[in-house]
Write a structure and sequence with these properties.
The structure is a single chain. The chain is mostly beta strands. Helix content is about 10%, strand content about 60%. Strands 1, 2, 3, 4, 5, 6, 7, 8, 9, 10 and 11 form an eleven-stranded antiparallel β-sheet that branches.
Length: about 250
Amino acid sequence: MRLSKYFFILVFALPVHLFAKSWDGGSLSKWTLGLNFSPDYSYRVLIKTTPRSQATIDYRNDVDRPKLSFTTGFMTTYQFNDKINFEAGLLYADKGENTRLIYPNYIFLSGQNDPNIPVSFYNQYHEIYIDIPLKIAFNYDRKKFSYFFAGGFSPSIYLYTHYINTSNYHNGISKTFQSSEPRGNSFLNIAFIASAGIKYDLGTNFKLRIEPTYRQSFSSLVVGTEMKDYFYSLGLNMGIYYTFKTKH
């Protein structure tokens, strides 16, 4: 949790210092630095590795639901030529899934409901990662607008899972339990990235970038289980990019 707080401080403090700084004279360099935020639709695909894991997969597919999540952080680009950019970034990513409302089928020997046992509950799983996207983009300039297509891959470093359980009881009370700790996720995950978008010139140094982005992991999020868990997401990445200047 402490690492996440430091990351958000860096995300919001550095652009304020950098973007407020203006140089007189000089020409634009080939380097840009951008601050990005993307609301994401996040889910996973489960693949069985043994026949007996099918029952678990069927249950997970019944109760699990996609989750609205987000990705934010810095991207830097290098203009190789008029058509091609190389891009790299450091992003804080909240992935995972939710469950639907689950009604457990308890049988009470006393014939009466136990007030300490919930009648329904649902779970939220916030899988926290640091993503390091590496991409190549192909640009098509049109005066103030430019269009681009990009692709690449993203190593993702697993930090921890923030788990939230909300339980509902017979007396109408709801209780929430939360915990933040690592669980059985692999330390490193690799995902494929594909995107397309537009850049709009806001002035000499700044550009607005809007970029629908698809991510699909091709290594499993979990290890040592009877099934494979492959994450995917669809997001709308939005960013403000600052183009550096070089002195004469």
